[in-house]
Amino acid sequence: MVLFTQMLNNSPDLSDAIYRSKNIFANSLDSDIFWSGRNFVIPFFVIIDILIVFWRLIRRYRQMQLRHIINELHYIANGNYDYRIPFELRGDLSKVVDSINGLVDSTVAAIEDERAIEKSKDELITNVSHDIRTPLTSIIGYLGLIEDRQYQNTDEILKYTSIAYKKAKQMKSLVEDLFEYSKVRQPSVPVINVSFDMVQLLEQLAADFELEAKKKDIQILVDTTESQLVMDGDTEKLVRVFNNLITNGLKYGTHADKIIIKIEKAKNEAVITVQNNGQPIPREALDQLFDRFYRVDESRSQEISGTGLGLAITQNIVNLHGGYIYAQSNEDWTSFIIHLPLHKNQAKALSDNR
């Protein structure tokens, strides 16, 4: 303002030119107040100064917020993954905070998934080692007796080789189940869908197990009001599912005399129940039945052969078809209930409804 005033005082021509322009503009507005030095120039520069100060304060405040966000981010990066940036902001910084918190959440989830995978691998190695070591020890032991000629006669040799043979079959069964389990766990495992009659398939399976069931005084029945139930699915994999469930009923359905396979149609689903009237499964064990290597018998006895993978394989195959399976057990019946979409294009809808 001082420089501007001195410039006007030292330049009469400029002062006259401004004065004439002022008069023209003032006359057009019928007022001279807008061109008064005190009433226009000073307020104008005051407003400019206020705007500049306000802009600098806002800029400084945002820089302070950004530094605070960076400090919080460094704190989280030091391993404090359960911490989230707590304050709420406006504008773009709010989006930055939300993005950081979302990134931390996804990172924590990824870390938890990785830990679960590592734990799962460790459990897999432990369980496989246990289940292979037990029969392998027996095989080596009995073959060692034969190798050292610690037998009295041919009958003892046959006894030792028979036991070794049975243990070798257990190992073979475990390896096959492991291979099947790893195969159905692959994300790109192919499902070859064909149209088939579920009623006919299950009646054929019941007939296949009839001889084995008679040896244990168990009757296998197919109960359905449907003359046929045509649906889409991979029959080879589904046969494995029902083989596992019927075999489980024969092996572990203690004191059972019936295995009933119920077939129902519910809207766009096929509901198949495989149940036996044997000894009930404890409630606390029901939720873990489909975990790999889990057995209700915590001693993991080999007296009843089994790898503990059958139900895990069953669940994965059912999931591949867009269905789901669960177990129920009471004093009367132990039931495994499967829901499967009737047609391939309904699998996704069934999964979404779940």
TrEMBL record:
Which positions fall inside the Histidine kinase domain? 127-344
Which positions, given as ranges, span the membrane?
40-58
Task: Read off the CDD domains from this record.
Answer: HATPase (cd00075), HisKA (cd00082)
Q: Where in the cell is the protein located?
A: Cell membrane
UniProt KW keywords:
ATP-binding, Cell membrane, Kinase, Membrane, Nucleotide-binding, Phosphoprotein, Transferase, Transmembrane, Transmembrane helix, Two-component regulatory system
This chain belongs to the protein called histidine kinase
Q: Which residues form the HAMP domain?
A: 60-112
Highest taxon, organism lineage: Bacteria
